Amino acid sequence: MDHKIVGKNTQRLDAVAKVTGRAMYTDDFFERDMLVGKVLRSPHAHARVTRIDASKAKALPGVVAVLTPADLPKIKFATAGHPWSLDPGHRDVEDRLILTDKARFVGDAIAAVVAEDLLTAEKALHLIEVEYEVLPHVLTAEDAMQEGAPLLHENRPGNIVSSFGVQFGDVEAEFQNAEVIFEGDYETSIVQHCHIESMSAYAFVDSDGRVVVNSSTQIPHIVRRIVAQALGLSWGRVKVIKPYIGGGFGNKQDVVVEPLTAAMSLAAGGRPVRYCMTREEVFIDTRTRHGMKLHLKTALSRDGKLQGIHMQVLSNTGAYASHGHSIAMSAGGKFRPLYDFRAIKYEPKTVYTNLPVAGAMRGYGTPQIFFALESHLDDIARKLELDPIELRRKNLIKLGHQDPLTKNVVRSFGIPECIEKGKELIHWEEKKQAHQGQTGHLRRGLGMACFAYASGTHPVALELAGARIVMNQDGSVTLQVGATEIGQGSDTVFAQITAETLGLPVDMVHVVTTQDTDITPFDSGAYASRQTFVTGIAVRKAALEVRQKVLEVAARRTGLAPAEMDLRDRMIVETSLGRTVCSLGDVAMDSFYDRLLAAPITSDTSANVRINAMSYGATFVEVEVDIQTGRVEVTELWNIHDSGTIINPKLAEGQVHGGVSMSLGAALLEQMLFDPVTGKPLNPNLLDYKLPTVLDTPKINAAFVETFDAAGTFGSKSLGECPTISPAPAVRNAVMDATGVAFHKIPLYPQVVFEKFREAGLLAERSVQHV
Amino acid sequence: MAERIDLNLKVNGADHSVSVHPFARLLDVLREDLRLTGTKEGCGEGECGACSVLLNGRVVNSCLVPAVQAQGAEVVTVEGLAEGENLSSLQAAFLVHNGAQCGFCTPGMLVSATDLIHRCPNPSDDEIRDGLAGNLCRCTGYAKILDAVHTAAEREAAR
Ligand code: FES
Ligand code: FES
Question: Residue A565's domain is classified under what CATH number?
Answer without folding.
Answer: 3.30.365.10
